[in-house]
Amino acid sequence: MKTIGLIGGMSFESSVEYYRLINEEVKNKLGGLHSAKCILYSVDFYEIQRYQAEGDWESAGNLLGDVAQTLEKAGAEFIIICTNTMHKVVEHIERKITIPILHIADATAKQIKETGISKVGLLGTTYTMEQDFYKSRIESNGIKVLVPNTEERVGVNRVIFEELVLGEIKQSSRDYYKEVIQRLIDNGAEGIILGCTEIGLLIKQEDSQVPIFDTAVIHAIASVTKALEEDDLNLMT
């Protein structure tokens, strides 16, 4: 089993879910008392969010690159960044390490393609919904990405930063997200990407008429698959 390096804390609400999901998946696959070999470095989200707001992505990338270096030195064999938005600086991070990063958008696109869906709606922070670093990665797999309108993007982002990252789950916000999801479906979305790792705390499959792709769940399970690849090969020989 490979050792997974997790860059977490963005926010810790979703990092807790990553840790739980990864260990549950290892237990499900290996049984008994097995759990994941992983190292979690939890950053101070205040610093990251400040860099985001200032548009200082270089400083954010350097900070996370240093974190990734620490994880590699501690024994991590690959890295997962437990947030969608900060994949914007994945190239900054990659330059500082020699181990691979399992990209959240690649894992998500793979699962979408396996369902045969070709058009999805994307919910996330305004950075993720409006900038190309994430959408283009999904679309490079032949999947069309739709986003909410300008007003809705502001509303979706507000719920993330004023509620979900603080652990606040409100029915009124769930109802609002369901309305946004329905409009994306009306515009042709065949599935919905929860492109912020906290949204899955609010929105579940029963809240949508089309398949929900919870990126935190997908990413966590994909990391276990990667961690166990060598073990699977050994079992086959």
UniProtKB/TrEMBL annotation:
Similarity-based family: Belongs to the aspartate/glutamate racemases family.
UniProt keyword annotation of Oxidoreductase present: no
PROSITE patterns: ASP_GLU_RACEMASE_1 (PS00923), ASP_GLU_RACEMASE_2 (PS00924)
Record-level Gene Ontology MF annotations: amino-acid racemase activity
Name recorded for this polypeptide: Aspartate/glutamate racemase family protein
InterPro entries in the cross-refs: Asp/Glu/hydantoin_racemase, Asp/Glu_race, Asp/Glu_racemase_AS_1, Asp/Glu_racemase_AS_2, Asp_race
Pfam families (UniProt xref): Asp_Glu_race (PF01177)
Domain of life of the organism encoding this protein: Bacteria
Keyword Isomerase: yes
Swiss-Prot/TrEMBL keywords: Isomerase
